[in-house]
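Slide 14.
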Amino acid sequence: MELAERTKILVVDDLPENLRLLAKLLVEEGYEVRQSPDGPLALSNVPRFQPDLILLDIMMPDMNGYEVCQQLKADQQTQDIPVIFLSALDLTFDKIKAFEVGAADYINKPFHPAEVLARIKNQLRIRQQAMQLQAQQAIIQAQQQQLEEIMQAHQAAEAKCRQLMASTLS
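Slide 15: predicted structure.
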């Protein structure tokens, strides 16, 4: 089962040529792609599109990528969506800031398509494993609750048996 077969990616960049290039690359790999030319539009697209991953430029007018990422991470509905920054900013400070606001990864522009695809697959795999872990934790919690209920019922039955035995012996 390929990750790309069911995966939605939101690409956010103010340069139309970057949007076209990334969308073409991702569609060819089987991903479902939605494009947003700015931060506010991206934020309004997220609830409707429900992306599995977001590729996000940093330097955009009106709202930069850091601000978009902060808003995504502040919202319970979107905080778990991995964000990969794609940016021409290559200073260590810029990369650190990206991770501080919640980025899962950072790719420098100009980028190599194979690197972008590898990093996307890696983040999707991590997200899938995290979701599996959450599901397993929910199962364990439910089983733990059932076990506690069984133990309480057992203790109540034991108490009743002791009470019956005590009343029979007296």
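Speaker note: Strands lie at 8-12, 32-36, 53-56, 83-87, 105-108.
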